[in-house]
Design goal:
Blueprint: E1 22-23, H1 25-33, H2 35-42, H3 54-72, H4 75-85, H5 97-117, E2 118-120, E3 122-123, E4 126-127, E5 129-136, E6 142-153, E7 159-167, H6 175-178, H7 183-187, H8 191-195, E8 201-210, E9 218-227, H9 228-251, E10 262-263, E11 266-267, E12 294-297, H10 298-309, H11 312-331, H12 345-352
Parallel strand pairs: 1-6, 5-12, 7-8
Antiparallel strand pairs: 2-6, 3-4, 5-6, 6-7, 8-9, 10-11
The structure holds iron/sulfur cluster.
Length: 353
C-alpha cells in the first residue's frame, strides 16, 4: 500500500504581484507596516494578493475626475470620467460612486482656484497626466510609479507634481500626513525629462478630499517645496529598503509586527493565519508587461544628484531655502515644530544669507 501524505499541499499557480520584483508606493507601505504581511501579499504563491476595495475604486475615480477637469475644465466630462473610473464597483455607505461624484463637485471651485496660478504642463504634445515610470534599483527590484498631473506655476515658473488623495481622517491639520511623504517625491524623478531641463528646485502639491461623516467632504490643498537633496534622500531610503528585502529573502525571515495587527480599529486580514508557515511557497517569476514612458537606473541617478548637489550655487540656494522654512516654522502657530530659537539662530542665519 502506498503511503498517503499527511497533508495535501495544493498546486500553486503563478502569482502576479511582486514575483516580478516590482515595488511601488503601496508595496513599500505594506513592507513598512509588517514584513510578514508583505511576504504574504507579494512574495508567496499561497499568500493572498491585495484585495480590491472601495478605497481603491473611490480614489481612482476621484483622481481621474480631478485630472480630467484640470486639463479640460469641463465639469460634465470630468464627472463622467470619474463615474467610469470608479471600478470595480465596490460600494459602502462611506465610499460609493455617488459620494465620489459629489466630492468631485465640491472640488471644482478649488481646482478653478488652482488654475488661476498654475497650468498643466505639456509633454510630447499631450497634457502631462497619468505618466508612468520605472526606476531600476538592481537586477531584481525596480520601483514603478504613476504621476497624476504635472503643473507649472505661471508666476514663479516652478514645476509641481500634483498628487490627488482622499482620506477618512477628520483632523483639522493633516499636514503631518503628507509633508514628509515619499510618494510624490519619488515621482518627481521624471520631472527633469518632462520639462526638458535639470531642475534644482521643484514642488509637490497634495490635493486632498477629506471625507467626513456627512455628504460634504473638505478639500485641502497642500503645497510643499522640495530640493534635490530630498530626492537623494528618497533614493537612499529606497536602497536601504531593497537591501532589507534581499536580506529577508536570503534568511527566509519576515518579521511579524504585532503593533500593526490592529489598524484604524480593524484587525489585519491575515490575523490568525499569518503564523502558519507549512504552506509557504515562493511564487514563480512573472514578467511585467507594462510599458513605461520613462526608465531610469538608480546608480546613475544617485551619482548625478550627488554631483548636482555639490555645486556652490546649489548649496547656497538650499541654505536660503532652509532658512526660509525655519522662519516659516517658527512663525507658524499651527506648526508642530519645537524650535523657539532661544539663541537668535534664525536671525543670525537670515543676516548671513
Ligand atoms: S496579523 Fe499582524 S503580524 Fe500577521 S501579517 Fe497582519 S500585521 Fe503582520
Amino acid at each position: 500500500m502506498t503511503e498517503q501524505p499527511l497533508l495535501y499541499i495544493p498546486k500553486t499557480s503563478n502569482f502576479t504581484t511582486n514575483a516580478t520584483g516590482r515595488l511601488s508606493y503601496s508595496t513599500m507601505n505594506t513592507l513598512e507596516t509588517c514584513e510578514r504581511m508583505y511576504q504574504l501579499e507579494h512574495v508567496l504563491a499561497n499568500g493572498a494578493a491585495r484585495e480590491e476595495s472601495e478605497h481603491f475604486s473611490f480614489g481612482h475615480g476621484f483622481g481621474e475626475g480631478v485630472a480630467h477637469y484640470l486639463v479640460n475644465q469641463d465639469k460634465d466630462a470630468a464627472l463622467l470620467t470619474a463615474w467610469l473610473a470608479y471600478w470595480p464597483q465596490i460600494e459602502t455607505e462611506k465610499k460609493n460612486q455617488a459620494k465620489c461624484l459629489n466630492a468631485l463637485n465640491v472640488a471644482f471651485p478649488h481646482l478653478d482656484n488652482i488654475l488661476q496660478d498654475y497650468e498643466v504642463v505639456e509633454f510630447e504634445g499631450k497634457a502631462a497626466v497619468e505618466l508612468n515610470f520605472r526606476l531600476n534599483i538592481d537586477k531584481t527590484y525596480y520601483f514603478a510609479g504613476h504621476i497624476d498631473v504635472v503643473l507649472k506655476n505661471k508666476w514663479s515658473g516652478i514645476y509641481f507634481i500634483f498628487e490627488v488623495k482622499t482620506t477618512g481622517l477628520n483632523l483639522h491639520d493633516i499636514d503631518p500626513l503628507y509633508k514628509n511623504s515619499g510618494q510624490a517625491l519619488g515621482y518627481s524623478i521624471a520631472m527633469d525629462r518632462i520639462v526638458g531641463e535639470k531642475l534644482s528646485s521643484y514642488g509637490i502639491i497634495y490635493f486632498v478630499a477629506q471625507l467626513g461623516k456627512d455628504y460634504t467632504p473638505q478639500i485641502k490643498v497642500l503645497p510643499y517645496n522640495k530640493t534635490l537633496l530630498d530626492r537623494l534622500n528618497w533614493f537612499m531610503t529606497l536602497g536601504l529598503d531593497v537591501e532589507k528585502l534581499h536580506r529577508m529573502a536570503e534568511l527566509d525571515a519576515y518579521p511579524k509586527r504585532g503593533n500593526s495587527c490592529l489598524n484604524y480599529m480593524r484587525p489585519c486580514r491575515h490575523f490568525g493565519i499569518c503564523g502558519l508557515h507549512a504552506l509557504d511557497r515562493v511564487a514563480s517569476f512573472v514578467p511585467d508587461k507594462e510599458v513605461y514612458q520613462f526608465e531610469y537606473n538608480m546608480d546613475e541617478l544617485v551619482k548625478e544628484h550627488i554631483e548636482r548637489i555639490a555645486t556652490p550655487e546649489y548649496q547656497s540656494k538650499a541654505a536660503i531655502q532652509d532658512v526660509e522654512e525655519l522662519v516659516a516654522a517658527t512663525n507658524n502657530n499651527n506648526t508642530y515644530c519645537s524650535v523657539d530659537d532661544p539663541f537668535g539662530l534664525v536671525e543670525d542665519l537670515i543676516e548671513e544669507f
